[in-house]
Design a protein that fits this description.
Length: about 400
């Protein structure tokens, strides 16, 4: 029977990781997968994570199962971090999931349970795995305009015009902050118009929040999510991979914000049921790290400080790259780099230009010209700038 299987299409981001590893050139530069790297190219274990792990190791007396929704302390710590005072806690159903991707997958499945014929609207472009999971689930997908290739900013008019076509019972995927792959986020006025539009059409917002704290601050990056959650029902898939740097621990949370407590209770039961069907109990170690950090004043302050160092470090790289390109080209056409948020920027290069930068300079970025800003450092930043100019950008 196994001979009935066909090769699956390669994941663009993961195959880029493999191609980078296989390149023997020592001067190669990895701007591919969305993993934070410091100036030495390392992805460090954050200080507070290390300390929390020590405390867990000292204090943990059992490895028995937690609950289908995960240890309640995890949701109780993460929900307020994300939603602040925007929604009463009792109106939020939440379950731990294997990473943000697990939350995304379960969110799509919940949409299918609630609204079997739903169309899921996704921004064009979006994280390729969103599309791949939706395809795998056999769900109907439609793109909405999001990114203006000319200005390399959000196409707010196009977005609102396309979302005007959503139907009651559809779901609309939104990136809560630090849009992946473009780095372009809507401004607050556009966010409010999107929220009003979706409410008026009876569509469900589904927010993917994978980079909280990488854009402007923990608070500001949560603002759009809070505004939407405060305005009615929505789903939120949160990842702790990036902001806690615990990628391999697979730590995510799926939240369903309901209009009242009774509905939230039923949603909670359904989310736990979905966990049981897909993998039973969610991973616990990363979730325990997060609740340990957020529940301890000192660890939390240290985590926030280190996250801020990471955020401002990426900002400095963005500004440095834009300044270098201003100097090299005598123009401000690359200043969009400083307006993009978080880890990624789409440069607006053609596939041929992306290929030329890889071939001639050993610079690896995703084929749509998405760079991971954190892959740069003070030494490699001018190399990228020169390669961009040499490639004719
Ligand atoms: C990315 O977009 O590079 C990250 O979210 C990692 C991944 O799994 O694709």
């Amino acid at each position: 029977m196994l001979d009935q299987l066909k090769d699956q299409p390669a994941d663009k981001i993961l195959s880029l990781m493999a191609a980078f590893r296989a390149d023997p050139r020592p001067e190669k530069i990895d701007l591919g997968v969305g993993v934070y790297k410091d100036a030495e190219g390392r992805t460090p274990v954050m200080r507070a994570v290390r300390e929390a792990e020590k405390r867990i190791w000292d204090g943990e007396t059992t490895k028995t199962y937690t609950a289908l929704a995960g240890d309640p302390a995890f949701a109780d710590a993460l929900v307020p971090l994300i939603l602040g005072p925007s929604v009463p806690r009792a109106q939020v159903a939440a379950v731990a999931t294997p990473g943000g991707t697990g939350a995304v997958r379960q969110g799509f499945e919940l949409i299918r349970m609630m609204s079997p014929g739903a169309t899921v609207w996704v921004p064009e472009p979006t994280w390729p795995n969103h599309l791949s999971i939706l395809r795998h689930l056999g769900m109907t997908v439609r793109g909405y305009r999001y990114f203006d290739e000319a200005t390399l900013a959000v196409d707010a008019d196009g977005m609102l015009a396309d979302l005007g076509g959503v139907q009651a019972g559809d779901a609309v995927l939104l990136h809560g902050c630090c849009h992946n792959p473009t780095g372009a986020d809507p401004d607050p006025a556009t966010w409010s118009k999107v929220a009003d539009l979706l409410r008026s059409r009876g569509a469900l917002p589904f927010i993917d929040l994978a980079y909280l704290g990488f854009g402007d601050s923990l608070e500001l990056d949560a603002a759009a999510t809070r505004m939407i959650a405060g305005s009615g029902e929505c789903l939120i898939a949160a990842s702790c991979s990036k902001n806690f740097g615990i990628y391999r621990e697979r730590t995510g949370l799926l939240m369903a914000v309901a209009g009242d407590e009774a509905t939230a209770k039923v949603a909670q039961g359904n989310l736990a049921h979905l966990n049981r069907q897909n993998f039973s109990f969610p991973p616990d170690h990363g979730a325990r790290i997060v609740s340990t950090i957020l529940g301890d004043e000192g660890l939390r302050a240290d985590w926030e400080a280190e996250l801020e160092e990471i955020r401002t470090g990426m900002l400095t790289l963005r500004e440095g790259l834009a300044a270098e390109l201003r100097r090299l080209t005598n123009s401000d056409r690359f200043d969009f780099l400083t307006r993009h948020k978080g880890m990624f920027s789409r440069l607006g290069a053609s596939p041929e230009q992306v290929e030329a930068m890889r071939r001639d300079h050993g610079i690896y970025m995703v084929g749509d010209s998405r760079i991971n800003v954190a892959g740069l450092n003070a030494r490699t930043m001018p190399i990228l700038a020169q390669a961009m100019v040499a490639a004719g950008l």
